[in-house]
Structure formats: structure tokens, C-alpha cells
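Question (not urgent): is this output format expected?
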Amino acid sequence: GVDRFEKGDFVVCTFEAYCWDCDYCMSPKSNVSRIQPRNNLQLDRTSRIAAKGKICSQKGSLGLFSEY
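Got this back:
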């Protein structure tokens, strides 16, 4: 659960996944993680989502907004 925020705190949601292990993720440049795949596919280079026979890429290997 979340225990670092209080009611009224500003929170910024991001769709970028971080590894929290590389030197970029441990700095203010966490949006350029070396571990994060840039092709938006699964680690095995496939996709779990398709629409009308075409592969849909997944941002951060997540199924966000997958109903669309």
C-alpha cells in the first residue's frame, strides 16, 4: 500500500516503467532507464495484445487501457 502521501498531496502519474537499479533510475533522469525496453514489446519481443489482426505495442510492458 501507499504510506508516503497524505490527503491533499500532489501526485504525478507516469506511464514510464523504471527498473530502480541502473544509474539513471537512481538519478533525476529516471525516465531514460537502461533496463526499460524501448520497443514496447514483452521481453521475448512478442505482444499480448492484438486488434483486428495487428499487434498492439504495450507501453512499459503493461496492459493499461487494454479495453481499447
